[in-house]
């Protein structure tokens, strides 16, 4: 039984140079997208300012009692 196989020069597993370059770019893309996504999430949930808080007079630094 004879097997006819054709060598594919563009095969991912055939060339270590091509596959390592591809994996390097995929890794860089994933890291960059995670960093940019985290920055956007921090920007979206950023501190909006000092809220108006009602503090009872009895809990001030110099408390006022009735």
Automatic annotation (TrEMBL):
Does the record bear Transmembrane helix in its keywords? yes
Q: Which residues cross the membrane?
A: 22-43
**Keyword Transmembrane helix belongs to the record:** yes
UniProt keyword terms in alphabetical order: Membrane, Transmembrane, Transmembrane helix
Upper lineage is: Bacteria, Pseudomonadati, Bacteroidota, Chitinophagia, Chitinophagales
Q: Which domain of life is it from?
A: Bacteria
Species of provenance: Chitinophaga rhizophila
Can you say what this protein is called?
Answer: Cbb3-type cytochrome oxidase component FixQ
């Amino acid at each position: 039984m004879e097997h006819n196989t054709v060598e594919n020069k563009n095969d991912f597993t055939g060339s270590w140079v091509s596959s390592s370059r591809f994996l390097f770019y995929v890794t860089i893309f994933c890291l960059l997208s995670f960093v940019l996504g985290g920055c956007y999430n921090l920007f979206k949930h950023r501190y909006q300012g000092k809220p108006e808080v009602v503090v009872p007079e009895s809990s001030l630094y110099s408390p006022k009692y009735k």
